[in-house]
Amino acid sequence: MSAIASAGRARARAAGPGGAALERRFHWWCLVPTLAVLGVVTLLPTLYLLATSLTPLNLTQPATQWNFSRPLRNYAFLLSDGRLHGSLWVQLKLSFWTVSLQLLLGFAVALMLNLRSRTLEALRTVFLIPMVLPPIVVAIIWKVLYTPDISPVHWATAALGWPLPTLITHPSYALGAIIVADIWEWFPFTMLMILAGLQVLPEEQVDAARIDGAGPWQLTVHVVLPFLRGVLLVAGLFRLIDSIKAFPLIFILTDGGPGTVTEVTNYYSYIQAFNFSQLGYSSAITVILVALTVVVSALIVRAVGWGHSGE
Amino acid sequence: MRRRAFLKQTAGSAVVATLALRAPAVLGQAKPFAGVTIHGASFQHVFHSYLKEYIPEFEEKTGMKVDFTTQAFPVYNQRADLELSTKGSAWDFLNVTFIYSGRWIGAGWMTPLDEFTSDRNQTPPEFDAKDFVAGAQSSLQDAKGATYGFAWEAGAMITGAARGDLIEKAGLKMPATFEQLVQVCEATNGKDGVAAFVADKLHHWNWIPYLMGFGGRVFKDPPDNLTPVLDTPQAAQAAEYYANLLVKYGPPGLLSYTDDQAMRAQLSGRANIRTQAIGWMTPLAKHEESKVKSTARYELMPGGPAGQFPGSNSHGFGIPLGAKNKKAAWAFITWAMSKETLRRVSLEKGYAAVCRRSIIDDPAYRKAMTFNGQDLAALYLKVLELGGKSGYMKYRTVPVFPQVGDKINKAMERIATRQQNARDAMKQAQAEAVEELKRGGIKLDA
Q1: Per-residue burial over A24-44, b = 16 or more CB atoms within 10 Å of its CB, e = otherwise
Q2: pLDDT for the residue numbered A228
Q3: Structural domains of chain B ordered from first start
Q4: Which chain B residues are within 8 Å of A147, Cβ to Cβ?
Q5: How far apart are the CA of B264 and the nearest CA of chain A, in angstroms?
Q6: pLDDT in tens, B173-197
Q7: Distance between CA atoms of B84 and B102, rounded to whole angstroms?
Q8: Whole-prediction pTM value?
Q9: Quick check: B253 and A148 CB within 8 A?
């Protein structure tokens, strides 16, 4: 592709002032297939979602599909839906704890694995295992660990005289149980990204800091972290967006319970759509969730910035 | 040829010819469905695990391959709801779940089966659709009486104790009232490391008999008036009572138990009493993995101050409107629901909840359903009779029940985990149910 582009540029230069327009047109034609695919795959479903959110679509009543007589009806319901508001609060807690702990743990393990050691290099692969397992398998592994009848953890703690309560059915621990499982599954992702960032950290910067008398802590805070800001931002955003999409762990482990203690917004939207057939209302919830995700991501990018890795 | 031999041969040929003429055409061929694969689905149930053992015989006979998958109750229902609503063709036959029957049949998502039953070429005469118990079939029919499924289970809720010996040792009998149930649980909980009570997490099925026993209801007057009535003092009392059973006498982790987990806890002797449909109870005395065969005891569902209201329901096989292989699916249903297959599942496996009158009335069934000297068939018929008498199960087949059932489940979890007291939890359930139904355009009382 780059060879074609170079050839295009060469032709444009040779053609003189009109060549720049020709080059722009060439670039646009290169982009058209990608934009078309993107439009079909992303934009159309989003527009459909938006349109559906303006209808009272209920699967058992096909006539409701294109009923736009009260387009803001669903959005008005959102304001008084206490269960939805509760789910947003649960979402906030889940996202905050999973993203921050995954970044922290990922950073700590990446620092360790960045040391030159054969054992640690071998360990890298082991750390990646949770991330490459299908999410439903991860959920089943944790279901086994959290179910007292069959859990080796429960057997062990009971044998030691410290019997654990059933974490996934206890209102104080259920969300924590999901957070732990999510961290186990996804900290390897942040670790991998941070490790990749650490491996391109210029040696000169580290050496210069050391010559200036920086200790390990100062080196980490003043050299490594600023260098990794962009990587941390991208990893954090990925994990934030994924945490908003959290589903298999909640579906398998708690079903949103006990009560609604672990019911995140995305799960509530799923229940509205697939348990109650209220697709219109579910779409309105999803539209709000998408909007919130975009706004929060933009605010984080603005606050943190992309870092200085290229400077 | 001798005259007698000639007469015998002629008579024999006449009988064969008559049978052949009466037999459906599809069965006249050697392997009428060779090369056809049908896909079907249901929720997990002991009946299906028994039926699956016989399916190879059907495949051998017809040449058809049957891909029959089962999932957990809520998972299956969600998938089926989506599949049916989109007129999908992924499944050729499926289970018509009781609580969704009104919705699926009412929305026109199922194939009417009368055209098959009235077609001699597709239905053998011995299928005898009228042999199915009318009460079990009623949820599988629409208002005009058209049939959309044939029942494989008439779920009749009874009390089953895995360790009846513990109750006897305590000098007590199987509980007949709510009060006695608590007494028995109190006296036996923890004995031999056995939890006194066990249940699965489908509270909107398990709890309702307790709600009604205390004099409460789910809706004002279903199916005509669907105003929820979950915030009554009776509902709070019943919720408090049931949550206590779960918390005080249940094994650890009970609130996450599926049907199968609850049954396993009983089969292994880790938990004692459960009030659930009879299909989940006979395995205690019959299942090959059961460690409690000799100590299994049965009784009717206990009653409360307002009487006895054991849950009864029915699930049946039907054909989705969008199914690709309807003829093959129907051939499978006529086989699976035939007198012969159901008789074998019932007598050989000990499956009690059959819906064919001819089997229920068969002395062999009564004999097979007698466990440790207890006549389970009598209990079964008694529950079906109770369920049909006052129509108290009507609440369950209204199309909006899944929404209201969800609120009941959540409320029960909040009470059992002490997040809320029963009164507040039921008040919240009522408010949420009303809001949900209004959002769905259902007219409710002011």
Answers
A1: eebeeeeeeeeeeeeeeeeee
A2: 93
A3: 27-155+313-367 (3.40.190.10), 157-310+397-439 (3.40.190.10)
A4: 253, 256
A5: 10
A6: 999 999 999 999 999 999 999 999 9
A7: 13
A8: 0.83
A9: yes
